[in-house]
Specification:
Elements lengths: L10 E8 L2 H17 L2 E6 L10 E8 L3 H11 L4 E7 L3 H6 L3 E3 L16
Antiparallel strand pairs: 1-3, 1-4, 2-3, 4-5
Length: 119
């Protein structure tokens, strides 16, 4: 059996999860602080579940090289927000099911929109 090659990771997404206006403000503040400190791209702040995400969310995109500095910062500064972190390899199913990390509580994603690639 061949193991996946970690060098296939091109970048990462960290999704901030929140459920109400108070959480939205917390996510907006955290995203602003993160973008002031790190080379990340802040996506839209959704006020409904979007894609596989079961809660309101905002996507933070960052290069693989940023992971080692950004994720420990996020661990310590996320407050009560739950954060879903996943790699970007070109295989959306694997990216959203294998090797994912959760900061805070984990939530069940709806991965039905993704197809597993045959190896």
């Amino acid at each position: 059996m061949t193991l996946p090659d970690h060098t296939q990771i091109k970048a990462f997404h960290a999704h901030l999860y929140y459920q109400d206006e108070k959480g939205l403000v917390m996510a907006q503040t955290l995203a602003q602080q993160a973008s002031d400190l790190f080379d990340i791209r802040v996506g839209r702040f959704h006020q409904k579940p979007v894609g596989p995400h079961p809660l309101w969310s905002c996507q933070l995109s960052f290069a693989a090289e940023t992971f080692g500095d950004f994720i420990p910062w996020l661990m310590m500064n996320r407050r009560s927000l739950d954060v879903f972190v996943h790699p970007l390899t070109g295989d959306d199913y694997r990216d959203h099911t294998q090797g994912v990390s959760w900061l805070g509580q984990s939530h069940t994603l709806d991965t039905s929109q993704f197809r597993a690639k045959k190896v």
